[in-house]
Design goal:
The protein is mainly beta. The chain has one helix spanning 38-46; strands at residues 8-17, 29-33, 60-63, 66-70, 84-89. The longest helix is centred in the middle third of the chain and has 9 residues, at 38-46. The protein is globular and about 40 Å long.
Length: 94
């Protein structure tokens, strides 16, 4: 429990692939309330992107090694202290 009386957890955030340049203002760790969900974590992440900036819905979402789908369609999950949230933006090329 923190000094302010609220419980918080910390998760690590990694963004790679085509969207990495959007993550300049995203901290390496996000603080979330206890029992926060993946959707809460993604909302916290989005709040650090620049105005009008968003990661593509096709980005893959991985939490502590578990592939949960994409930003647009992922499995629900309750986050835990020290989870690692990895967002991988698709890369096209030829």
């Amino acid at each position: 429990m923190n000094i302010d009386g609220h419980c918080h957890m910390k998760i690590r955030v990694v963004i790679s692939g085509r969207g990495y340049h959007l993550s300049q203002n995203v901290p390496e760790h996000l603080k979330l309330p206890d029992a926060a969900t993946l959707d809460n974590a993604l909302a916290g992440l989005a709040s650090h992107l620049g105005d009008g900036q968003a990661l593509p819905g096709s980005c893959l979402v991985i939490v502590s090694g578990d592939h949960l789908g994409t930003l647009a369609c992922h499995e629900p999950r309750v986050m835990k202290e020290n989870d690692e949230l990895v967002i991988i933006a698709p890369v096209a090329g030829g």
